[in-house]
Design goal:
single chain, about 25% strand, 6 helices, alpha+beta, 3-stranded antiparallel β-sheet, globular
C-alpha cells in the first residue's frame, strides 16, 4: 500500500510539473498546426510529451508507453503495465487561450486503469484516482450524483440537438477528460460521445469517474478495455449510475446508424 501511495504521489508531482510547464507558455506565441483537418497540435504538446516520457519512464522503466504525441509501437502490447498519456487534452482550448485543458496521465495494468491524474492548472484543479480508493479533486473526495431520471440530466455541451432538448446544457471544456471528471464531482450527470475515440483521451478520467461511483462504458454500453492493438473505442458514456441504462437505450439507434 505504501509503495502504491508513493507511486501515486510521484505521478501527481510529474503531472503538476507538466501542467506548470504548459501553463508557462499558455497565451504566449508558439507554433501550432493541424495533424489532420480538425485535429490541432502545438509545439507545447510535443515538449510536454517528451518531458512526461522521460519522467514517467524513470518511475517505471518496465512500463510500456502510449501517447497522443508519440508514434505508437507494438512493444507496449507485451507489457502488463502501460502509461497512457495525453500531454495536453483539450489542445483547441489551450491554443485559444481558454481554460478547458489538462495534462492526463493513466497507468494501465492488465487492460484497466489503476492510477489516474488530471492536472488542469488554468482551472486550479487536480483530479486523482487509484484503484480501490476514492476519487479526489484538490485533495477532497468527490462523488457522482444520484440522478435516476434521464430527463433534466446535466450535459456539458455547446448546444443540445433537438432530440435531446429534455436535457440541460452546462459548461463544456474542450477536454473530454475534464468533461468526464465533471460527472465524478456531480457537476454534470452525463457525458457521451458518438465517434471513435482514443484511449489517451479518457483513460485517466474514466478511472476518476468510476472511483466516484459513476457508470462508465463505451457508447454501446460495453466495458472499456485499454492497451489494445487498436487503441480506440467507439465513444464513451459516463453518467450517474441511475441513468446509464436509459442513456445507452437513447443512443442505441444513433450508434447503429453511425456504425452502419
Amino acid at each position: 500500500m505504501a509503495e502504491a501511495r508513493n507511486l501515486a504521489d510521484a505521478v501527481a508531482a510529474v503531472a503538476r510539473e507538466a501542467g506548470q510547464m504548459a501553463l508557462a507558455r499558455w497565451r504566449t506565441d508558439f507554433a501550432r498546426w493541424e495533424k489532420e483537418p480538425g485535429s490541432p497540435v502545438c509545439e507545447v504538446d510535443l515538449d510536454v510529451d517528451r518531458m512526461l516520457h522521460a519522467r514517467l519512464g524513470a518511475l517505471l522503466p518496465e512500463a510500456g508507453w502510449l501517447s497522443e504525441e508519440t508514434a505508437d509501437h507494438p512493444a507496449r502490447l507485451a507489457r502488463r503495465r502501460v502509461w497512457v498519456v495525453d500531454p495536453i487534452d483539450g489542445t483547441r482550448d489551450y491554443i485559444r487561450g481558454r481554460t478547458g485543458w489538462c495534462v492526463s496521465i493513466a497507468l494501465i495494468e492488465d487492460g484497466q486503469p489503476v492510477l489516474g491524474v488530471l492536472d488542469a492548472p488554468a482551472r486550479g484543479e487536480v483530479w486523482r484516482a487509484a484503484a480501490g480508493e476514492a476519487a479526489t479533486l484538490n485533495g477532497a473526495a468527490v462523488r457522482a450524483g444520484a440522478r435516476d431520471v434521464l430527463a433534466g440530466a446535466r450535459v456539458p455541451v455547446d448546444a443540445l440537438p433537438k432530440v435531446d432538448r429534455d436535457l440541460t446544457a452546462v459548461e463544456k471544456p474542450n477536454s473530454i477528460a475534464l468533461r468526464v471528471a465533471m460527472v465524478a464531482a456531480d457537476q454534470a450527470d452525463l457525458v457521451a460521445t458518438l465517434r471513435w475515440g482514443n484511449e489517451w483521451d479518457i483513460a485517466a478520467a474514466v478511472l476518476v469517474a468510476g472511483a466516484a461511483g459513476a457508470a462508465v462504458s463505451d457508447a454501446l454500453g460495453a466495458p472499456l478495455v485499454f492497451n489494445k492493438a487498436d487503441p480506440r473505442a467507439y465513444g464513451v458514456l459516463v453518467s450517474t449510475a441511475g441513468i446509464h441504462d436509459a442513456a445507452v437505450a437513447r443512443l442505441a439507434g444513433r450508434v447503429t446508424a453511425a456504425l452502419g
